[in-house]
Amino acid sequence: MSIHYSKEWNWKEETSPIWLKPSEESYYIVKHWKENGYKDVLDFGCGLGRHSIFFAKQGFNVSAFDLSQEGISHLEKWAKDERLTIDLTVADMLSLPYNDNSFDCVFAYHVISHTDTIGMHKILSEIIRILKPNGEIYLTLCSKETWSFKDAGYPKIDENTVVKTEEGPEKGIPHFYVTLQEILKIFSDFEIERIRHTDDCYFAGKEQNSKHYFILAKLCKMSII
């Protein structure tokens, strides 16, 4: 089975201002990583750059990539307006353009799920490669308990992955889903510090069923994949 390659987010279809504001979780992560003396951060799949700007303002050395040229161009202008230095590139998360042991930490917020099962293992091997020993990753993964996996009827391309078909910025983009036990297996090369399982049960003016795992983990393997 080959990897179902993803495609860039269509930002012309997305009008919510949420993508320009740091997530609430990022405030905790900034404090945690500062306390641990981390400096070099990769904003993994940065979108329009809300977290890149936030981390740079907090004094981190920030690198950022995204598959979308539109997103990178937006962030480039934003960083210039804020007089911030951020290393930017257009890249695919399946093949990262960074040297081994480049980063103290990786921040991957609502992005790493945009692949299939084979792609997920490839992406994690790339993250292990670019993280320094004892480096940390903070990421989100879609839960198999959520509506879009259980009940939406989206076509499945493997046992863990559906492709969204409705009109909007995510049309045609694969989404990989997990259970807690699958997370523990997938992240066997990491020391997991914390996993939260959340349910965004009401937003956009109506009841919803959108569940995600929020994972903080430290790389414990010393060897390079």
UniProtKB/TrEMBL annotation:
Superkingdom per UniProt: Bacteria
A matching Pfam family: Methyltransf_25
Positions of the Methyltransferase domain: 41-135
Keywords: Transferase, Ubiquinone
Gene3D superfamilies xref list: Vaccinia Virus protein VP39
Listed name of the protein: Ubiquinone/menaquinone biosynthesis C-methylase UbiE
